[in-house]
Amino acid sequence: MSSEHKGSCLCQAIQYRITTSKPIGYTLCHCIDCQKVSGSTYAANLFILKSDFHLTKGEDSLSTYSTSATFSGSTLTRHFCKTCGSFVFSTTTSSDKLIVLATGCLDGHPEWKPTQEIFCSHRRAWLQELENTKRFEKMNPGRNRAKL
């Protein structure tokens, strides 16, 4: 049974809903790119199917930035709000069925918890490991999102 969650950018120009009871994954990423895009020590990324993501407002307010200088070699496109600059979600060429949602844009507090931390080799020394997560120095070697 799916449940609905809503989210938005800071200025509310972009709004969305997701319809899933369980995301594909919830990852804390400590890579340098995620630190820079989040403006923080890591990015909290929720992996969901594109079919579970519904943009309800603000498609014309989206701006994108793409890079292929990624660990996987896939092109990653980040989607931002043109007005407030909030990073809302990413898409990747490694899977056309996947959305990587920036969890800071979710409204409320869904009960999901991160299950893994990646690029721990870049974790800030003062930042403690999150209990009950799998940890990887780089990318999770067992992941294969291309088959989604």
Automatic annotation (TrEMBL):
The keyword Lyase applies. GO terms for molecular function: carbon-sulfur lyase activity; metal ion binding. PROSITE patterns: CENP_V_GFA (PS51891). Residues 5-113 form the CENP-V/GFA domain. Keywords: Lyase, Metal-binding, Zinc. Pfam families: GFA. Belongs to the Gfa family. This is CENP-V/GFA domain-containing protein. The lineage of its organism: Eukaryota, Fungi, Dikarya, Basidiomycota, Agaricomycotina.
